[in-house]
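Aim 2 progress update. The chain analyzed this quarter is reproduced below.
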Amino acid sequence: MIPGSLALAAVALPLSALGTGLALRYLRRRQVLDLPNERSSHSLPTPRGGGLGVVPAALLVWLPLVPSAGELGPWLLVSVAGAMLLMLTSWLDDRHGLPAGPRFLAHAVIVAGTLALLPEGAEVFQGWLPLWLDRLLAGLGWLWFVNLFNFMDGIDGISGVEAGCLGFGIALVGLVAGIGELAPPAVAVAAAATGFLLWNWHPAKLFLGDVGSVPLGFLLGGLLLLLAVGGQLAAALILPAYYLADATITLVRRGLKGEKIWQAHRQHFYQRAVQGGKRHDQVALAVLAADLALIAAALLAAAGRVVEGTAAAVIVVAALLALLAKWARS
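Predicted structure tokens:
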């Protein structure tokens, strides 16, 4: 399983790097640019749409896995189709701007359709809830993750770092927990994200765009759900804990202020740290360090020490949020 996953990474990473480079040439030629405004964290017009390179690279590696994936095969196949549909919808949004309602409805339909492929006995919350409620909360959680992954794509390098750490973290936890079939698709996404990161590291040559962040959030959210179905609910919550905390706290704050929570802004912890004077790469490296610690905490939980792993995750996330808040004040 490990050699096969490494071989997939060796394909997905250069494929993504090459595809992103080709996407950059196309975006420059068509003048598909993210222009700076009061909600931006960048100061120069920058091509937007790097997901045109990174997402197809991951999906091209997923497709050969379908015949040998057993029960996971149909899920992988439908996930590829769902990610492609999300790419199309998000590309239209990047180019022309779609209303929030139709975008959210498209996300919900694709998430619900893919979630319906879970076997009847597969439960995300491990039997603590009736099946209908288990499915409902799982779907809402997945839908929230798709959107928060998009919301959190606001500075150079952060999405590549998060996607890479989540993918490799899911693979490692899967191997430790005896659900190694998750490792190949998870490693493929992580390697593709790393290939994109070569172009997106500060100062970024291009941005991911909705065409990349939305499908990546969908693929990673699905893998996290499968991790939970495999009995690793704690690990599935620990791995993305920083993104979950930053996005949720910021959303609640904005809602309490009466602001339109679906509009773009610069109020996330990591964005405020950049406004406080830190470079994009400094903030991304802080997120990387925290994500690596969260992987260790998730592995601890997967090894049966759930309380210790969860406590470690809470400490890591609290420390990162406190650091970013301190940088924001400086």
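The longest strand covers residues 33-34. The radius of gyration is 19 Å. These observations will guide the mutagenesis experiments scheduled for the next reporting period.
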